[in-house]
Amino acid sequence: MVEEVAGMHLPAPFAIAVAATIVQFTFSLFVTVGLLTRLNAALLAGALVGAIFQNLLARRDPQLAILYTLVVLSVALMGGGKFALDARAFSRGQSQQRKQNIYA
User: Fold this and answer.
1) What gap in Å lies between CA 12 and CA 33, rounded to an integer?
2) pLDDT single digits (tens) 13-45
3) How far apart, in whole angstroms, are the C-alpha atoms of residue 45 and residue 37?
4) DSSP class of residue 53?
5) Is 11 helix (H, G, I), strand (E, B) or coil?
6) Is the pTM above the cut of 0.70?
7) What value, to the nearest 5°, has the Cα angle with vertex 100 and ends 95 and 104?
8) CA atoms lying within 13 Å on the CB side of residue 36
9) Rounded CA separation 48/76 (Å)
10) Nearest-CA neighbor of 53 among 14, 15, 12, 16?
11) What's the Rg (C-alpha) of the chain?
């Protein structure tokens, strides 16, 4: 991967390759469990746009990278849903506030 990033003529190809690998691995795990889903999906989409450009510059078919980017962008726009950790973490505080407002 470092050689492919170096072929894109970007500065510090090793650092960029390591950062892209970490972003794609960790943020995809966070999106899977629903932890800060929208933020992580948006950042992951940015890394996947880099993968699209990398495929184009290497004269490979970027179709799979485009598909992954569209899926991650849709998750970024729609959110994690009711089974995500975000929904559980943020709904507890809101439901307690609603109960306090009702009894006040």
Assistant:
1) 32
2) 899 889 889 999 999 999 999 999 999 999 999
3) 12
4) H
5) coil
6) yes
7) 150
8) 10
9) 13
10) 16
11) 18
